[in-house]
Write a structure and sequence with these properties.
Keywords: Membrane, Transmembrane, Transmembrane helix. It holds the Pfam family DsbD_2. This is Sulfite exporter TauE/SafE family protein. The protein is an all-alpha fold. The protein has one domain. It is 83% helix and 0% strand. The chain is built from 10 helices and no strands. Helix 1 runs parallel beside helix 8, helix 3 packs parallel to helix 6 and helix 3 packs antiparallel against helix 8.
Length: 229
């Protein structure tokens, strides 16, 4: 069976269109209106995706240091729970994940000061650096996707998940940069958000079910391996 978390990471980015446009739409629109043209827009979003991917790889490396059955089970349960939570968050039925944004705001302040050095970006290099900084902004969707990516316990897999998340944000952000109002309207529709929220919650429920079904076997196999040692 295909791991649902890769699709989930993309869906979180896509479904968070309204959230993304609210938090980053201003800078995206400014880039689109700038004299430096589409090259700067592409450089900025490339920097954002690079930032997300690097964060995912670091998270996967950190969680992969511990390799026990109990830790792996905990991370899988966490992944399923986060999928459910993100579905509720995107559907605006529960805003519990907003605490991540409040926590991240403290970490964002020094980065924000650094990012201001490249506003407005006059060259593609400045836009890349600005995008790298903007990937660290206090956003509950970013942090939730990062926590989900960390459950993969592998730098490559976790980095790929965050790259997928970044790809999911591109339609909304590019629409903001290029002034595609019809696409922005589509991505903000309540029905679209509810559809993706339902898919995320279904993926979360399935992840929890599969984890619970195989937990006994995984723990027994781990215990048997330790006994042989």
């Amino acid at each position: 069976m295909m791991d649902p978390t890769l699709f989930a990471a993309f869906s979180v980015g896509l479904a968070g269109a309204g959230h993304c446009l609210g938090m980053c739409g201003g800078i995206a629109a400014a880039l689109g209106l700038g004299a430096s043209g589409k090259g700067t827009v592409i450089a900025y979003h490339g920097g954002r995706l690079l930032s997300y991917t690097a964060l995912g790889a670091a998270a996967g490396l950190a969680t992969g240091i511990v390799d026990t059955a109990a830790w792996t089970l905990f991370l899988r349960y966490l992944a399923g729970t986060l999928l459910l939570a993100m579905g509720l968050y995107i559907a605006d039925w529960w805003r519990g994940l907003a605490w991540l944004e409040r926590l991240g705001a403290r970490l964002w302040r020094p980065v924000q000061g650094l990012a201001s050095r490249w506003l407005p970006p006059r060259r593609p290099r400045d836009a890349v650096l600005l995008g790298l900084c903007w990937g660290l902004m206090p956003c509950g969707l970013i942090y939730s996707a990062l926590a989900l990516a960390a459950t993969r316990q592998d730098p490559l897999a976790s980095g790929l998940m965050m790259f997928s998340f970044g790809l999911g944000t591109l339609p909304a952000m590019l629409a903001g940069s290029l002034g595609a109002r019809q696409l922005q309207s589509l991505l903000r529709r309540r029905g679209m958000k509810l559809l993706i929220a339902a898919l995320l919650m279904a993926a979360g429920a399935w992840t929890l079910y599969i984890t619970a079904s195989h937990s006994g076997h995984l723990l027994a196999a781990s215990a048997g391996g330790h006994a042989h040692h």
